[in-house]
Design a protein that fits this description.
The structure holds three protein chains of three kinds.
Chain A (H helix, E strand, L loop, with lengths): L2 E12 L2 E12 L3 E5 L6 H8 L4 E8 L2 E2 L5 H6 L2 E4 L11 H8 L9 H11 L1 H5 L10 H13 L5 E5 L7 H17 L3 E6 L2 H7 L2 E6 L2 E7 H6 L1 H8 L2
Helix pairs in contact in A: 3-6
Chain B lengths: L1 H9 L15 H13 L6 H27 L6 H18 L4 H23 L4 H19 L5 H4 L5 E2 L13 H25 L1 H11 L1 H6 L4 H27 L1 E2 L6 H14 L6 H19 L4 H15 L3 H18 L1
Antiparallel strand pairs in B: 1-2
Helix pairs in contact in B: 1-2, 1-15, 3-8, 3-9, 3-11, 3-12, 3-13, 4-5, 4-6, 4-11, 5-11, 8-9, 9-11, 12-13, 13-14
Chain C lengths: L1 H31 L6 H17 L4 H24 L7 H23 L14 E2 L2 E5 H23 L1 H11 L1 H6 L4 H27 L6 H15 L4 H21 L8 H15 L14
Antiparallel strand pairs in C: 1-2
The chains are: A alpha/beta, B mainly alpha, C mainly alpha.
Chain lengths: 237, 338, 292
């Protein structure tokens, strides 16, 4: 397997405050990787730095191409979909318009209609509500919509920022099941940032643990989940 | 203008500007004051008149600065308050035969009331909506002044002619010179009062609102009261400036108070540096002398020159004269060290 | 009753002017979340350009098309050169920029074409429309053009990808970038479109108010009033707002004694303030809740 995303010595800043202190990691093509850590560890910042939404230094390579200096929209156009924290739903537009927006930077307009149908297969609840204003959806439905919107890009890599946030446990299970399916069936590489470590480790095959802007642990998700010391000191369950 | 620049460089570099961000140090203030007192003794009447206008516009710019720099609200409608002040003074002098000096506090109070009332609806507006409402106020004002209802007092489109006062107590001063010193005294009094206001409890309340309205209200600041108060104070000072302006120009007419005046005052504030009261006089000099020079080159050019300069200020020195002053201070400090 | 009906009709005729301008106001507000105080001046300048083209012998519709194209390009150029660098600056700086632009355009137009009032032609003629003395063929044509623009805008925003992208960029810039939209160019496009719509408004308005550098000041305030009344987030609302303002103005003038032409601007002012205070979202706009 080749590394699809290579991050070396990533440092990010919010004004004067440094949030990441030389982070290095890589994602294998087709993998489902999770980035774990406590509040304020720098998980969200890492995702934002990949999409150039925060000032950062270091080398970020996607499929061999350096992307550190590209603007956010140009990073996305390479096939990196980002589901942000808070979902970023276009609340005053309909569900269908949200999905169309997901594909807005794609040149192949003809396939968009069939892709929307495919999303309705993955997330049947969206089909029932496709003319509804997205802002009227429940939190779980909005998260489904956000994932579907990201998939409309036909991404090579999908970044998810705390998809479980604020959702009921049953819905989270459902969502994670779909993520696993997308990873296997659509061959989308996934990097998911989570606070819910237990669930994320069940889903993922690779895992990184970060603390105060540094990687402190990496490896096979099962190994990390089974390592009692790691669990107690970093993951807190 | 040149006086102001020199003074800035002579300021003690130790007194960092940010600490007393809104005012000048004592030494500098005294030098400026001395210059303002002495210069008129050596220049022609017309220049004295221009210096009077300089002070008057500086007052009006400072009033806007208190509103914007102090409480974070902005207004494109200052010309309306200026007009109300000017007409109040003119009407009281010409129709009620009142002494010119007495009309000023009345102009101030009337405008305070007007501003306070206008501040009530403006309270619920922020940012661009407030700009819109005040912009509309400024454009509507000349038409209001032309109204047939008030014509017997305002003189309608014709306006009113105002008599220029003589120096009192038989002082051997020309009318222009007396009016200059009178304006200077009023300006100093208002400047000191404003500085004290901003350093007072109310001033801190203004600034708290400017920086974070929600946090300010959480700290127990009566946001509604202080925002309208800031509007009132700003309008009141502008009104006094308007009254002085009417006396100095000896004439009030609706078309003297168009949106152009409001734009000039706004420009003066931006050029002088938002939130830096002494910058008002720099801004005022800018809005008085730049159009004169531009009109000298070609008629109708002043708007373009204004606009271009305003863009230059925004791009190059977004903090206006204050930024220039700080850079100058730092340069002076370097020179001293070498 | 007939008087009332006639005045409503006359109001719609004047309202078309405001509706036209309000459409441009809403367009820019949608794109940049600000009101462009130089909008009227930009429209005035465009109108002068079309006048100049006609002076050089270009036929009306040729000049019309060229002017719209010129205005579209000029709007984009102005945004790229002057306002893109201010994108992250505070509102105050942006307002200062609009004011500067206002002063420059007004002054330059005066320098090039001087301040005398000029006649401006209408392609629709100015005979009574369908035999009514209250509404001329020009005014009817102007209403038609306004409604046509509204319809085109509706289709653009509802059914085209660019329109969808523009709406997304305006409502949630960060999310828009995350689906690959170049939000910066969407803003430029918004400027271009607003400028183009403004130029059409200017060319429609000029036969009524005559062509001169200060022709748009009052119209712009009314355009603002109409846009605010209809709701700044709704092109449909802006046009309805324009007609309502026109009707309101005429009825007030007819039924309240002493209110003549001289009170036009104060009425607009009062209307703006009342609407902003009582119903900031306007009649047809969407209320925007700001989270604290």
């Amino acid at each position: 397997m080749t590394a699809m995303l290579n991050v070396k010595d990533l440092r990010a800043y919010y004004g004067q405050v440094q949030a990441l202190h030389g982070l290095s990691f890589s994602l294998n093509e087709g993998s489902l990787t999770t980035l774990l850590g406590a509040n304020g560890a720098g998980k969200t910042t890492t995702l934002r730095a990949i999409c150039n939404m925060v000032r950062s230094t270091g080398a970020i390579e996607f499929e061999g191409k350096p992307i550190g200096t590209r603007s956010t929209e140009n990073v996305v156009r390479l096939g990196i979909a980002h589901v942000p924290q808070g979902r970023g739903t276009f609340t005053n537009m309909t569900v269908e318009e949200n999905l169309q927006l997901g594909a807005i930077s794609r040149p192949d307009k003809k396939a968009i209609g069939s892709d929307i149908e495919r999303m309705y297969d993955h997330f049947p609840v969206l089909k029932q509500r496709y003319t509804q204003q997205a802002g009227t959806l429940s939190g779980g439905e909005q998260q489904m919509l956000a994932v579907a919107r990201a998939l409309m890009l036909r991404p090579r890599l999908m970044l998810l920022d705390e998809p479980s946030f604020g959702l009921a446990p049953l819905i989270v299970r459902d969502l994670f099941r779909i993520l696993g399916k997308i990873n296997r069936e659509e061959k989308v590489t996934i990097l998911v940032v989570e606070q819910n470590a237990q669930l994320a480790l069940e889903l993922a095959d690779q895992a990184y643990v970060i603390e105060t802007g540094r990687i402190v642990m990496s490896g096979n998700a099962k190994d990390i989940a089974n390592n009692e010391d790691v669990r107690k000191s970093y993951l807190g369950y | 203008m040149s006086a102001a620049e020199e003074i800035v460089t002579e300021a003690p570099a130790v007194e960092a500007v940010p600490k007393r961000a809104m005012t000048l140090g004592y030494g500098t203030s005294l030098v400026v004051l001395a210059a303002l007192i002495i210069i008129p003794l050596f220049v022609k009447n017309f220049i004295i008149f221009q210096m009077t206008m300089l002070l008057i516009y500086a007052l009006a710019v400072m009033a806007l600065n208190i509103l914007t720099g102090g409480s974070g609200q902005f207004s494109l409608g200052q010309s309306a308050f200026y007009a109300v002040g000017a007409y109040t003074s003119a009407i009281l002098m010409e129709h009620a035969g009142m002494n010119y000096a007495l009309t000023l506090p009345i102009a101030g109070i009337v405008c305070f009331g007007f501003g306070f009332l206008f501040g009530q609806p403006a309270l619920r507006l922020s940012g661009v909506y407030l700009a819109l409402a005040t912009f509309a106020l400024a454009t509507a004002m000349p038409q209001l002044l032309k109204l047939g209802y008030f014509e017997q007092w305002t003189g309608g489109v014709q306006g009113l002619v105002v008599t220029k006062p003589d120096a009192p107590f038989g002082l051997p001063l020309s009318q222009d010179m007396w009016l200059y010193y009178f304006t200077l005294a009023v300006s100093i009094a208002i400047y000191l009062a404003s500085v004290n206001l901003l350093r007072s409890r109310s001033g801190r309340a203004f600034m708290a609102i400017r920086d974070n309205e929600i946090a300010a209200s959480a700290m127990g600041v009566d946001v509604a009261l202080y925002k309208t108060l800031a509007f009132g104070v700003s309008a009141g000072i502008t009104g006094v400036a308007g009254g002085l302006g009417a006396i100095a120009v000896q004439f009030v007419a609706p078309d003297g108070y168009t949106i152009q005046l409001a734009i000039s005052l706004f420009l003066g504030m931006v050029v002088g540096g938002v939130g830096w009261l002494p910058g008002s006089i720099v801004g005022s000099a800018f809005i008085i002398f730049v159009p004169n020079i531009a009109e000298g080159i070609s008629k109708g050019l002043s708007g373009a020159v204004f606009g271009v300069l305003l863009f230059l200020v925004i791009f190059l020195v977004p903090h206006g004269a204050r930024q220039v002053a700080i850079v100058a201070q730092q340069l002076a400090a370097k020179l001293k060290k070498n | 009753m007939e008087l009332f009906a006639n005045q409503v009709l006359a109001g719609i005729a004047t309202g078309a002017i405001y509706a036209c301008m309000a459409l441009a106001v809403v367009m820019i507000y949608q794109a940049i979340d600000h009101l462009n105080f130089a909008q009227g001046e930009m429209a005035m300048f465009s109108t002068f350009v079309s006048w100049q083209l006609m002076q050089w012998g270009v036929p009306y519709w040729g000049a019309f098309v060229l002017t719209v194209a010129f205005s579209f390009a000029a709007g984009i150029v102005i945004e790229r050169l002057l306002f893109k660098p201010l994108a992250k600056a505070p509102i105050l700086t942006n307002v200062a920029g609009f004011i500067a632009l206002y002063a420059i355009i007004n002054s330059v137009a005066g320098l090039i074409w001087d301040f005398t009032i000029k006649q401006y032609p209408t392609p629709f003629g100015s005979s009574p429309f369908l035999g009514s003395q209250l509404i001329s063929t020009h005014q009817a044509g102007m209403i038609g053009i306004t409604l046509l623009m509204l319809l085109l805008l509706f289709f653009f925003f509802r059914f085209t990808r660019v329109g969808l992208a523009m709406r997304a960029a305006a409502s949630l810039p960060e999310s828009a970038r995350l689906v690959g939209i170049n939000t910066s160019w969407m803003i430029a496009l918004g400027w271009g479109m607003a400028s183009a719509i403004g130029s059409i408004a200017g060319m429609m308005i000029a036969p009524v108010v005559f062509l001169e550098p200060n022709m748009m000041l009052g119209v712009l305030i009314y355009g603002f009033a109409a846009a605010v009344l209809g709701g700044l987030s709704s092109p449909f609302g802006a046009v309805m707002g324009g007609f309502l303002v026109g009707i309101f103005e005429n009825l007030v003038g007819t039924y309240i004694p002493g209110v003549g032409n001289e009170l036009k601007l104060p009425i607009a002012l009062a209307l703006i303030i009342v609407v902003l205070v009582v119903k900031p979202a306007g009649l047809f706009g969407r209320a925007i809740v700001k989270r604290v």
